[in-house]
Specification:
Blueprint (H helix, E strand, L loop, with lengths): L2 E5 L2 E6 L2 E6 L10 H23 L10 E8 L7 E9 L6 H14 L1 H7 L10
Antiparallel strand pairs: 1-2, 2-3, 4-5
Length: about 130
Amino acid sequence: MTTVKFAEGQNEIYNEAGLQIIGSTAPNQSGLSPRELLEAALGLCVSISLQKILDYDKKEYDKSSIGVEVTAVKAADGTNRFTNFAVRVKLPSTLDSTYKEKLMSVVERACTIGNTLKGEVIIETIEI
C-alpha cells in the first residue's frame, strides 16, 4: 500500500517501510510530480522485467548497461489524461540483435504496469 500525506508544507509519499519520497505539484521540481511517478513506475517495471528475463535466460550482462527513459504524452484534445507513453530502452551491447528483438517483445508482455496502462482499469475512490 502507498500512502500520501500532506505534512510540513509538502506532500510525502510512504510505503509500509516509511517515507520514501516527496511529491511535487509539477515536473522538474524538488520531489516527483504525479506525471513523473507514473513515468517512473512504467520505467522501473520495464527495467525489472528486463533483468528478470535476462536472468531467466542466463545471459551474462552488466546491470548498469540497462537504461529506460519514459515520456508520457497528454491528450491532444485537451482531456486530462495521457494517451501515449514513449518507452526507450538501452540494452546491453553484448546481446545479439536477434535476442534483443525477442527481449523487447517479451518485456512488453511481462511488465504489469505497462499491461495495466494498456487495459481498462477501475478506480474506486472512497473516503477513509
